[in-house]
Amino acid sequence: MTDIHTLAGAYALDALDELERAAFDRHLRECAACATEVAELREAAARLADPTWSVPPPALRDRVLADIGRTRQVGPELPRPARRGAAPRWRRFAAAAAVVGLATAGGAAGAFAWQQRELRQERAVLAATRAEAARMQAVMTAPDARVHGGDLAGGGRITVVVSARENLGVVVLAAPPAEAGKVYQYWMLDGARPVSAAVLASGEHHSTRVLAGVQGMESFGVTVEPAGGSPTPSLPVRAGIPLV
Amino acid sequence: MTESGGAPGGRGRLTPVAPPAAAPLTPEALLAAVARGDEAAFARLYDATVPRVYGLVRRVLRDPAQAEEVVQEVMLEVWRTAARFEPARGSATGWILTMAHRRAVDRVRAEEASAARVLRVAAATVDVPYDDVVDRATGRLERQQVRHCLDALTDLQREAITLAYYGGHTYREVAALLDAGLPSIKTRMRDGLIRLRDCLGVEVSR
């Protein structure tokens, strides 16, 4: 029994906070035995509704039946590609986990160890998110904040807010998904050569990122690269935005 | 499931023959029909399940008006996502109640800090069923069984479970309310539910 597994009862009672609930949800996807136990505990918990039995006002029925008449139904869930489906999410977490010095599971590391770390990593992600929000705020409220923006070749828009004083920038991307197997990558140019500023995760095309070290940078670029990013930008450049 | 019990030849018919109105379809069969867009089946499923859904949501929220809103959302969600129900993971009623409970709890937590809720909870009277006559006539055995099984738990198990389920509290809050350690509350919730499961004879076919 892993530590997270002792949360099965609290989970079935909806007594976990959101972070733990999310971690446990993922745990469930990987642990068939736990899924069975939770299904049974949930079923038992649902029986606790029996003594609350109470007939609602008839008008509610009319409203609900009117509602369904104008509501489209969704289809059944198609079987998801097992296990590997978690990869993009994993990559997103990895960066934040590395920040706080947690071991990041490599491709070969077992799912078991990963599960145990999930909760801690969720917390790390939350902490990293908060730190990121604070940095974002620092840029946005800096007296010298300047807004630059431009359209992407191929659609979408990029907005870059920089503060030389904070030496930080906030980059907001709203663009169509990159081609299959490709990701967006950000670059900064100080005149000499482009330096990778960020490689977005696979599927990340609506994104807000904080970039450090913007001081002295002359322009900002966006390219589409193979997943994981490239050491140098591939042509065509989707957007090149002067920062001075 | 309009074809259940029908002749083998019925499958090819273009106009489905409506089952007699009184045909005792299970919630699972009704839900399957709902997944195919059967509005009449939905109405029957609504009637069969809504007293428990409403009762539970009202118990958690302590506010009839808000409870109605949440029940409306939940029942609409049942209609919308009926095709996502997986019979292998539990009963149709359990599925609906799980959805209802989560929504009720989410709403409680969203307004946790609001003074309005504190006042409402303080002012809330004991649950009075909307229709006491029907209440007494229906499902009495099931309710008694649940009460009996709750009584069979240890005090800490029962309090931990009811504070979480009816009160919408997280296990951390429950631990604070009961002045108990987190590991102990986690454990009591789990072994309490296991005991409840066994007492109620709950089974999930997989």
What's this, in brief?
The complex is a heterodimer of chains A (244) and B (206). Chain A has 244 residues and is α+β, with helices and mostly antiparallel strands.
Plain-language structure description:
The complex is a heterodimer of chains A (244) and B (206). With 244 residues, chain A is α+β, with helices and mostly antiparallel strands. Chain A has helices at residues 8-12, 18-30, 32-46, 58-69, 87-99, 111-141, and strands at 146-151, 157-163, 168-174, 182-189, 194-199, 206-212, 219-226, 239-242. A 4-stranded antiparallel β-sheet of chain A has the order 1-2-3-6, with helices on one face. Chain A has a 4-stranded antiparallel β-sheet with strand order 5-4-7-8, with no helix packed on it. In chain A, helix 2 packs antiparallel against helix 6 (111-141) and helix 5 packs across helix 6. The longest helix of chain A is centred in the middle third of the chain and has 31 residues, at 111-141. Chain B has 2 domains: 23-135, RNA polymerase sigma factor, region 2, helix turn helix motif (Rna Polymerase Sigma Factor, Chain: A, Orthogonal Bundle), CATH 1.10.1740.10; 139-201, Arc Repressor Mutant, subunit A (Orthogonal Bundle), CATH 1.10.10.10. Residues 1-16 and 120-136 of chain B have low confidence and may be disordered. By secondary structure, chain B is mainly α. Chain B has helices spanning 27-35, 39-61, 64-81, 92-110, 115-123, 132-137, 140-151, 155-165, 171-178, 182-200. The interface between A and B is large, with 47 and 82 residues. Chain A: This is Regulator of SigK.
CATH structural fold name of the largest domain in chain B = Rna Polymerase Sigma Factor, Chain: A
Task: Identify the overall geometry of chain B.
Answer: globular
Helical amount among residues of chain A, as a percent range? 25-40%
CATH architecture of the largest domain in chain B: Orthogonal Bundle
- What best-fitting shape of chain A do the alpha-carbon axes yield? elongated
Secondary structure: number of strands of chain B: 0
- The count of domains of chain B is 2
Stated plainly, the CATH topology of the domain at 142-242 in chain A is called: Immunoglobulin-like
Main β-sheet description of chain B: none
Label the CATH architecture of the domain at 142-242 in chain A.
Answer: Sandwich
Number of helical stretches of at least 4 residues of chain B: 10
Largest Cβ-defined interface: A-B, 47 and 82 residues
Query: Which class of the largest domain in chain B in CATH terms?
Result: Mainly Alpha
User: Segments of chain B where pLDDT lies below 50 for 5+ residues?
Assistant: 1-16, 120-136
Oligomeric state of shown chains: heterodimer
Domain RNA polymerase sigma factor 70 region 4 type (chain B): 143-195
Protein name (chain B): RNA polymerase sigma factor SigK
Keywords (chain B): Sigma factor, Transcription, Transcription regulation
InterPro entries (chain B): RNA_pol_sigma-70-like, RNA_pol_sigma-70_dom, RNA_pol_sigma70_r2, RNA_pol_sigma70_r4_t2, RNA_pol_sigma_r2, RNA_pol_sigma_r3/r4-like, WH-like_DNA-bd_sf
